[in-house]
Each structure stands twice: as structure tokens, then as C-alpha cells.
Amino acid sequence: MRFGVVVFPGTWSDCDFHYVVSEVLHQPVRYVWHRERELSELDCVILPGGFSYGDYLRAGAVAGRSPVVEALRGFVAKGGLVLGSCNGFQILCEAGFLPGVLTRNECLQYRCQSSHLVVENVDTPFTRGLRPGQVLTMPISHGEGKYHADAETLARLKQQNLIVFRYSEADGRVTKKSNPNGSLDNIAGVVNPEGTVLGMMPHPERASEAAMGGTDGLLMFQSLLGSLVEDGSFLKR
Amino acid sequence: MRARVLVRLKPGIMDVQGAAVKRALVGMGFSELNDLRVGKVIDIDLNEPTVESVRARVGEMCRQLLANPILEDYTIETVDDLAPRGAAR
Fold first, then answer.
1. What's the mean pLDDT in A93-99?
2. pLDDT, tens digit (0-9, with 9 covering 90-100), for A117-164
3. Which of A28, A157, B42, B44 has a CA positioned 20 to 30 A from the CA of residue A224?
4. What pLDDT does A27 receive?
5. Can you tell me the distance from the alpha carbon of A217 to that of A209, in angstroms, rounded to the nearest whole number?
6. Could you confirm whether domain B2-83 is CATH 3.40.30.10?
7. Which residue on chain B is closest to A181 by alpha carbon?
8. Cα separation of B64 and B76, whole Å?
9. CA of A60: which chain B residue's CA is closest?
10. What is the 3-state secondary structure (H, E, C) of A9-20?
11. Domain count of chain A?
């Protein structure tokens, strides 16, 4: 599976994602500069965390209108996979790939800590290898991660099963206490109706080696590779 | 021609920044404070001949980038509304 890791001015998780894909997953990967428009040779584009364009105006607002994100529209229309983590999630919402928006944490603090996520939707290439109700442990690191959407959008997310991860306790119970940023319904990650564009605030790339404190993030990358085999798309190359 | 865009959080949206500023002011003794919300001011100078065309173009900028309709409302003031030399009113 050929990966691209997008780099904006101010991106900071690009090297971590590149490292995990090339050194842990052993898959081909290249950096994609934010002015690039050519993505056709890639299978999965990653929008990493950071502070693209200094979070000016709103987090992800300027990056959400950049050439590479415009090129993502064609890429997604052709079935390409997109994973946005942290700032990448903010960019996907700002660009309209995913509903809702990420706003300032309710506690007003920047939160950098380990978090538990309960898996709600395993019908995506990113989560196919997981079990419904499985609890993953991954770090979060953000100041603007409070997911917000209007009531109509929330109802649609639930009805179409588009909520992929929710912040939870270690045993999977979704509680107010386990919500680190005040997100609506503890939402930590959502997917588009096609299941091909996933946005999440936590950092799977920072939980992909035992030496880093956990490998739950790697399960998502392994799901991605598994989906390539399951749907036979590797035969089409 | 100049325009000024005011971007505000919608009424139903909790303004955590405004709440923090309000707490600070109340702590400083401004106990008469009822409510406070923080917004953004964006001053724009553009080559458009008429107030109508300025409003149309700046409105397009707001819809496409300057405001997020999920969270924010915006108002546009044109040169007619602004004080001479753009001085703060």
C-alpha cells in the first residue's frame, strides 16, 4: 500500500507517520508538500497533526483550502483513503470532507495525555481489524479538539454509524469524566459515509511501537493493509 | 475600497475564551459585567468599484474562508460605515 504524508508549514507529526509506515509497517511512503496536486499513484494520504499555517484564522482553515487538499477531492472520489489525525481532522472538517468542526477545548487547557477510545464502527478500512466495543489507548495532544456539530448532523452521524471512536474509560464506558476536551457525545473520530475518509483527534502514529508505550495505533495501520488484501485491490496493480 | 468583517460565534455556541476574559474582568472588580464574547475583526482593502460589488466579493470570502458557518456569524461593514482613514469608532 503506497502512502503519502502531507506536509504543511507547521505540521509536526509528519516524521512520526513517515517513520511508522516505512520502518514499522515496511510500506512505501513519501512526503507530499502542500502545494502538490498529483496524488494518483497513492493509495492512502495521511494528514498529520501539528499547527498548519500557525492555526491562523481557525485551526485547519487555511490548510483546508490548500492545493493538496483541493486535489484530495478527486483522490477521494476515485476511492482513495484519507486519514486525518489531530490537525488533519481539523483540516478535513474545515474542507468539508467530514461534518462538524473542532473548537477550543472546554477546559481551555492544551491536553497532552493518554486517552482511551472505544471503537464504535469497524466497517471501515481503518478499523476492520478491530472489534466493536474494543478499547484502544492512544495519546491526544491538542488545544482545539472539542468536536461540535448541530443536532441534525449528530443524528445523521448516529443513524449512519459514522462515529468511529469515542473517548471512554479503560473499560469502555463513555463518561463525562473520560471526555478530555468537552467533545459532543465524547466523539473522538468520525468517518465519511463511504468509510474512506477518517478524521480523529488522537495520534495512532504515537502508539505504534512497544517502546513508545503502546501499539494500539498500529492496529489501525494493520487494518488498512488487511483491507487491501480482503478486497483484492492489490491484484489490480 | 475598504471593508471590515466582524466574525462572531453564533449565539448558541459556548465561547470559552470570552468566559475566561469575563472571569478575569470580574476578578479585577468589574462586577457589573453580565456577558462578554470575543470575536474577530478583519480589515480588507480591495479593488472593487462599488459598495455592492465590495459586499458581494467580501461575502464570498466569508462564505469560503473567513467564517465557519457551523460556528460563526459575520457582518460586513463597507467604507460607508467606516470612519475616515479606518479609525476605530
1. 98
2. 999 999 999 999 999 999 999 999 999 999 999 999 999 999 999 999
3. A157
4. 95
5. 9
6. no
7. B16
8. 14
9. B65
10. CCECCHHHHHHH
11. 1
Query: Of the candidates B20, B68, B71, which has its C-beta nearest A108's C-beta?
Result: B20
* CATH number, domain containing residue A76: 3.40.50.880
Which of A53, A56, A58, A147 is the best substitution to test chain B (most B C-beta atoms within 10 A)? A58
Domain residues for the domain of A119 are: 3-236
The residue among A56, A101, A183 with the most chain B CBs within 10 A of its CB, best to mutate, is A101
- pLDDT tens-place string over residues A182-221: 999 999 999 999 999 999 999 999 999 999 889 999 999 9
DSSP character string of A100-113? SEEE--TT-S-EEE
Model ipTM?
0.81
Residue A103 phi/psi, 5-degree rounding, is -125, 180
User: What's this model's pTM, rounded to 2 decimal places?
Assistant: 0.91
Contact A57 B71 (CB under 8 A): no
- How close is the nearest chain B Cα to the Cα of A171, in Å? 30
- What residues in B contact A149, CB-CB < 8 Å? 70
